[in-house]
Automatic annotation (TrEMBL):
Name of the molecule in the record: GCN5 family acetyltransferase
Family from the record: Belongs to the acetyltransferase family. RimJ subfamily.
Record key words, sorted: Acyltransferase, Transferase
One Pfam short name: Acetyltransf_3
Species this protein is from: Exiguobacterium undae
InterPro entries referenced in this protein's UniProt entry, alphabetically: Acyl_CoA_acyltransferase (IPR016181), GNAT_dom (IPR000182), N-acetyltransferase (IPR051531)
Residue ranges occupied by any N-acetyltransferase domain in the UniProt entry: 23-163
PROSITE patterns, alphabetized: GNAT (PS51186)
C-alpha cells in the first residue's frame, strides 16, 4: 500500500483548455486571493510564498502535489488543483480553488477530471475522494459533473468518491 508519491520531474498535465503545471514563487502576487493552507488565508505575497514553500515541502516529502491551473490561450493563472493530506490507504484527497472571475465556465470540472485521471491511471491510487462543506453547492456540482459520487456525510461535510 503506497502512502508516499515521488516524481523525478514535476508532472505537467493538459486538458482541452488548461495547462496544469508547477506553481512558481514568482507568481505569488497573482494568487493572494485564493491561497489557503490548513485553513490559513494568505493576506499578501509573503504569505503566499510561505504557503507555496509548505506545498513544495509536501511535494518533496511525497505527501501531496499541487498544480497551478493556467489558460492555454493566454497563460494566465486561474487557480489550483491538488492532492493533499498524504495518501493513507493509497487514497488521494483532491482539493481545488478557482479565482472568482473564472468560476462557472467549467474550468474546474475539466481540471478535476484531468487530475483524477492522473491519480488513478498514472499514480495508481485506488481511489480519489473529496470533502465539501454542506453549503458548498458549487464544489458539489463540480464533483458530480466530474463523475464523483456522494457517499456519506457527517454534520459538517459531504464525502465524494471518484468514478
Amino acid at each position: 500500500m503506497k502512502e508516499k508519491y515521488y516524481f523525478d520531474v514535476f508532472p505537467e498535465l493538459t486538458s482541452e483548455r488548461l495547462l496544469l503545471r508547477e506553481i512558481r514563487l514568482s507568481e505569488a502576487n497573482h494568487m493572494i486571493e485564493i491561497t489557503v493552507y490548513d485553513g490559513h488565508q494568505a493576506e499578501n505575497s509573503r504569505d503566499v510564498i510561505r504557503i507555496l514553500s509548505q506545498i513544495a515541502l509536501d511535494y518533496l516529502n511525497g505527501d501531496g502535489i499541487t498544480w497551478g491551473l493556467y489558460l492555454k490561450s493566454t497563460g494566465e493563472f486561474i487557480g489550483n488543483c491538488c492532492f493533499c493530506r498524504g495518501y493513507q490507504h493509497n487514497i488521494a484527497e483532491i482539493g481545488y480553488v478557482l479565482k472568482p472571475d473564472f468560476r462557472g465556465y467549467g474550468y474546474m470540472t475539466e481540471a478535476v477530471k484531468t487530475v483524477t485521471r492522473f491519480g488513478l491511471q498514472d499514480m495508481k491510487v485506488t481511489q480519489v475522494c473529496a470533502y465539501t462543506e454542506l453549503e458548498n453547492h458549487a464544489s458539489q456540482s463540480v464533483l458530480l459533473k466530474a463523475g464523483y459520487v456522494k457517499t456519506t456525510h457527517d454534520e459538517d461535510t459531504y464525502k465524494f468518491i471518484s468514478p
